[in-house]
Amino acid sequence: KTKNSKPKEKKAVPPPAKKPKVDKPPLNKTQSDYESLDFSSNRTTSDGKLWNLKISSWNVGGLKAWVKKNGIDYLKYEDPDIFCLQETKCSESKLPPEVKVDGYHTYWLSGEKEGYAGVGLYSKKEPIKVTYGLGKKEFDTEGRVITVEYEKFYLVAAYVPNAGRGLVTLPKRMKWDPDLRNYVKELDSKKPVILCGDMNVSHQPNDLANPKTNTKNAGFTQEERDGMTALLEEGFVDSFRHLYPEKTGAYTFWTYMGNARSRNTGWRLDYFILSQKLIPNLCDSIIRSGVYGSDHCPITLLINI
Amino acid sequence: KTKNSKPKEKKAVPPPAKKPKVDKPPLNKTQSDYESLDFSSNRTTSDGKLWNLKISSWNVGGLKAWVKKNGIDYLKYEDPDIFCLQETKCSESKLPPEVKVDGYHTYWLSGEKEGYAGVGLYSKKEPIKVTYGLGKKEFDTEGRVITVEYEKFYLVAAYVPNAGRGLVTLPKRMKWDPDLRNYVKELDSKKPVILCGDMNVSHQPNDLANPKTNTKNAGFTQEERDGMTALLEEGFVDSFRHLYPEKTGAYTFWTYMGNARSRNTGWRLDYFILSQKLIPNLCDSIIRSGVYGSDHCPITLLINI
DNA sequence: CATCTGATG
DNA sequence: CATCAGATG
Question: Location of site Important for catalytic activity (chains A, B) (predicted)?
Answer without folding.
Answer: 270
